[in-house]
Amino acid sequence: MATAAAFGGAALILSGCSSSSPADSDGGGGSLTVLCTVQEDQCQQVMDTFTAEEGITARYVRMSAGEAVARMNASKANPEFDVVYGGGADNHVASAEFGLLEPYVSPNADVIPEEFKDPDGLWTGIYWGMFGFCANTDVLESIGADVPQSWDDLLDPVFAGNIAMAHPATSGTAYQAMWSQVELNDGDQDAALEYFGDLHSNILQYTKSGSGPGQMAGRGEIAVGLIFAHDCIKFINEGFTNLETIYPEEGATFEVGAVSLIKDAAHPDEAKTFIDWALTPVAQEIGVATGNYQAPTNPDAEVTDDMVDRDEVAVLDYDITEAGAARDELTKRFDAEVAPQPKE
């Protein structure tokens, strides 16, 4: 059990598939297909850099984390992908529960801290990030609301129709929000669902993508988006200067974004080379180069001022394995008990 502690192309017929090299060439060094769940610009740069450095053509399909689990499970008998890159480790645990992953302990994993990797090699962390609120200060002023500082603040009727979050069945971001409430309620999943039932009346939309609510907030469509803080910071740096990043005062869980080898992958050797490379400082600094500010797990990778300072936020201790094992049932309950309810 891995417990995370609180801490101070070639014509590939796949929907949405991109390639880092011309479609009629595999670069002469083999190829692989990556299921990528980080931002699109980061996915593309990761594949381009890997291909340039290793001589292996990396193609990818970009999906949100929840969609990625469903897609892998649907193609389990004949896997479409070799590696899954990104998405919270709880999603990788859920994938392992479905029998979708193959253990692989990379020699480069030696430098990764224990709390950022599975001891059996089912997943290895490549970044981590904190959950938070992304608030549009102009919209807050227009509706007469203060900047929300806590989970309870979000329940204020002043926010009716002015909050968005992703659906936890499709988004690992939203599942982090759910699991934060589980932890805040001492493991009581019923209480966590009750919180989201209360929040439901203030939700304008459940998006498919975890970062979508931040974009909605930036455009002024809502007052608050529930997203990872590094995504909010990215949108601020891209011009949405009316946004503010808030870390809830009660605390929130953190995501350990991971990389894993897919069971029965068509290109296992290339996949292992990719995983080895993904754990290097060069690979983990691509986030910064593309304006994505997840903190790296490799202690030798660059850390910038745009990354969360873990000593200044309330971080909830949680068990990644437990969260991953509960994901399927908990998201189904959300879909049945929360999402379809009428708004009061």
TrEMBL record:
Gene3D superfamilies: Periplasmic binding protein-like II. GO terms for molecular function: thiamine binding; thiamine pyrophosphate binding. CDD domains: PBP2_Fbp_like_1 (cd13544). One of its GO terms (cellular component) is outer membrane-bounded periplasmic space. Keywords: Signal. One of its GO terms (biological process) is thiamine transport. PANTHER family: ABC TRANSPORTER SUBSTRATE-BINDING PROTEIN, THIAMINE-BINDING PERIPLASMIC PROTEIN-RELATED. This is ABC transporter substrate-binding protein. The lineage of its organism: Bacteria, Bacillati, Actinomycetota, Actinomycetes, Micrococcales.
